[in-house]
Amino acid sequence: MAVSSPTTASPPYPRATVHVSRAEADHWLDEKLTARATGVQKQIHEAAAAALEPYRASGRLDAFDFLDAVPGVCALDQQGHTAGHSGYLFTGGAEPVLFWGDTVHSHTVQLPCPHVSIAIDSDEGRAVKARARVLDDVAGRGWWVAASHLPFPGLGHLRPNGEGYRWVPVRFKPLDRSY
Q1: Which residue in 81, 74, 71, 123 sits closest to 101, CA to CA?
Q2: How far apart are CA 55 and CA 86, in angstroms?
Q3: What one-character-per-residue DSSP string does the chain give?
Q4: β-pair partners for 87
Q5: pLDDT digits over 108-165, tens only?
Q6: Cis before 54 (ω within 30)
Q7: How far apart are alpha carbons 45 and 124 in whole angstroms?
Q8: In the beta sheet, which residues pair with residue 158?
Q9: Domains of the chain: which residue ranges?
Q10: How many angstroms separate the CA atoms of 158 and 173, rounded?
Q11: In whole angstroms, what is the distance from residue 163 CA to residue 111 CA?
Q12: Integer angstrom CA distances of residue 32 from 27, 29, 49, 96, 139
């Protein structure tokens, strides 16, 4: 995989600050860990380091231990998929919304069978435990979920279904394009 030189790249969003857990940043920016990685893990390390480097170099990488700088936003530890995988729970409105990142990679497999891991998880055992905890919290507390790897529009709820869960997407009304 060809990775552009992180030292010469400029941030795609030059005024943005990337907020990421310290464990996540330390993991992806650890050159020794990247050098020891193999296969798909090496590709992921190189891509992540290349994406973060321009923000680090410009002073716009905020590695946090606890995200508490933004009122109504709480970072949730979901370590396993990656070393510092975090979800972001927005609680400012009447109904909390969890942006959970890569907690689920294949909704057709991992919602009904949350114990199934995937090779791109940094720590498959921890990823399974984190997924189980997050899915239980989301379904039990009635939180909204916003995430990739879920059916369009990627916003909805989870409902218990046997040993796993069922995805219930928000009702979507297409825009009126008759103008």
Answers
A1: 81
A2: 19
A3: -----TTT---SSTT--EEEEHHHHHHHT-HHHHHH--HHHHHHHHHHHHHHHHHHHTT-EEEESS--SSTTEEEEE-TTSSTT-EEEEE-SSSS-EEE-TTS-S-HHHHTT-TT---TT-SSHHHHHHHHHHHHHHHHHHT-EEE-SSSSTT-EEEEEEETTEEEEEEPP--------
A4: 76
A5: 999 999 999 988 888 889 999 999 999 999 999 999 999 989 998 899 999 999 999 9
A6: no
A7: 16
A8: 167
A9: 18-64, 73-169
A10: 20
A11: 9
A12: 10, 9, 12, 39, 39
For 34-63, write each residue's pLDDT tens digit.
Answer: 899 888 888 988 998 999 999 999 999 988
- Is the CB of residue 97 less than 8 Å from the CB of residue 144? yes
The DSSP-derived string for 15-39 is T--EEEEHHHHHHHT-HHHHHH--H
Full-model pTM: 0.76
Any idea which fold 73-169 has? Metallo-beta-lactamase; Chain A (3.60.15)
* Bridge partner residues of 160 (DSSP): 165
Owner of token pair 């114990």 = 115
How far apart, in whole angstroms, are the C-alpha atoms of residue 44 and residue 52? 12
